[in-house]
Design the sequence.
């Protein structure tokens, strides 16, 4: 039975949102709704316009016999600025300050709406980077990796500091923990990352950059390629960071453990990514 | 400017999908699209019909001045059966068998499409359970907890076996690891779970049930209430399980470490939840 336009638009929207960065042939929709390709093209033009106006994302058209449409999630500049400002405010809350100048983040990194926004924001940055896998280190980086992986629609892999029997054979590297200058070890299941993968590193918090540096070494061991590093928050660090090129959404710029206060502000994300935050309108 | 119906339907669908289990007043949409409430009601009737037909979920209407609509994600029975059959097949793959009869799951639990389906399936089971928080234990349960939390739109909390400075003050319990009969310790950040919360426990794999039992003890320590236990896979266990009431999506029923083979089949999920898997039609 032929499906009405209104029903097609609703189901099409849902179908596309669940499959970001995936090429879907027009013939698929044509069959699904028993409708002519010309009608489907008109539908998609409406979806494209609404997605652009509401800054939901870009609906790319790939022409030709092997073509179709592809939904690319984007966060617009206004929404990105508002989100980062809101998070900076949350991270400045006094009761987040922990002994040693650490910051409590578990509530934010367990909240679905926050994770959706972090994921969409970081996926916007790497939307043209052809990422094959997102990498993070257990435990607190996982929610971020998973959310980015949903919006880029690629797998994520979890590096561990402790050995677990459930990972099978692993490859391990030693790394210098930047904050404490200790030698530590991290490992990744051997079968989790194919050679030549393009890997995006994400984490919740970066101080000296030692952990991120360890992940870079692991990527080399797998003969894979790192395409970028983005952390939710960077902390204050006195001395040379082990990583120079990275992106941070938030920067904790003042920590006073005596007065028990801290302050957070925007990281370098916005300045680095202005261009990518613009949704091409019609 | 008044927004056309087609544009409204697309944006409304997106808006609802991103906010499951959230009551949205009709006046919100009416303002957002500068359209009469009667038009919005008609729009929502179309969305409701399409969501039901495509088994996307239920669009609940709450009447009255404080009313509105609420999107409840559901997985239909057919899709649930197909997904569980597909996963059983994947879990029967010989190369997943690890020493000690463990099963390698990290690839599946790092794949966005698999996690979306697990999340939607478990959220279907607890859609009327008024869950306040999803609980799991680090590391491998996290992706499942996060995905369920997205579809129920409630926070998730991560119990840890190792102490980390970034969690602040914690509450800990000792528990007996069922598989190895060792006494171990797990802890949860004190501020992460309010008293009287209704908590859903999820995990990736259950053998003796010791870990799940530990989480039950933790929930008691927080004066919270457990509303259910659902695991992705249950393994073979000789002896009495420490947990009797639980749901499993998959059951690994045969493991032969000598011949290096294993076999998985459907767990008790489908039998327990037939009724909840039916999407109320028009």
Sequence:
């Amino acid at each position: 039975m032929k499906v009405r336009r209104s029903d097609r638009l609703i189901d099409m929207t849902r179908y596309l949102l669940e499959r970001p960065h995936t090429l879907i042939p027009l013939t698929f929709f044509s069959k699904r709704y028993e409708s002519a390709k010309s009608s489907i093209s008109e539908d998609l033009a409406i979806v494209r316009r609404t997605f652009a106006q509401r800054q939901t994302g870009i609906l790319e058209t790939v022409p030709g016999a092997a073509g179709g449409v592809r939904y690319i999630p984007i966060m617009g500049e206004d929404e990105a600025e508002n989100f980062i400002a809101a998070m900076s405010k949350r991270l400045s809350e006094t009761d987040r300050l922990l002994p040693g100048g650490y910051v409590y983040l578990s509530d934010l990194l367990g909240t679905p709406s926050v994770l959706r926004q972090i994921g969409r924001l970081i996926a916007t940055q790497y939307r043209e980077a052809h990422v094959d896998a997102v990498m993070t280190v257990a435990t607190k980086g996982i929610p971020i990796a998973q959310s980015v992986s949903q919006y880029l629609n690629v797998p994520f892999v979890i590096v561990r500091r402790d050995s677990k029997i459930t990972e099978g054979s692993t490859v391990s590297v030693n790394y210098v923990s930047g904050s404490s200058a200790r030698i530590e070890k991290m490992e990744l299941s051997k079968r989790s990352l194919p050679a030549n993968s393009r890997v995006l590193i994400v984490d919740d918090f970066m101080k000296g950059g030692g952990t991120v540096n360890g992940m870079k070494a692991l990527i080399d061991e797998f003969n894979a390629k790192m395409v970028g590093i983005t952390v939710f928050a960077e902390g204050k660090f006195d001395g040379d960071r082990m990583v120079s090129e990275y992106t941070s959404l938030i920067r904790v710029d003042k920590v006073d453990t005596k007065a028990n206060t801290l302050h957070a502000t925007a990281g370098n994300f916005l300045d680095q990514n202005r261009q990518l935050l613009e949704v091409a309108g019609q």
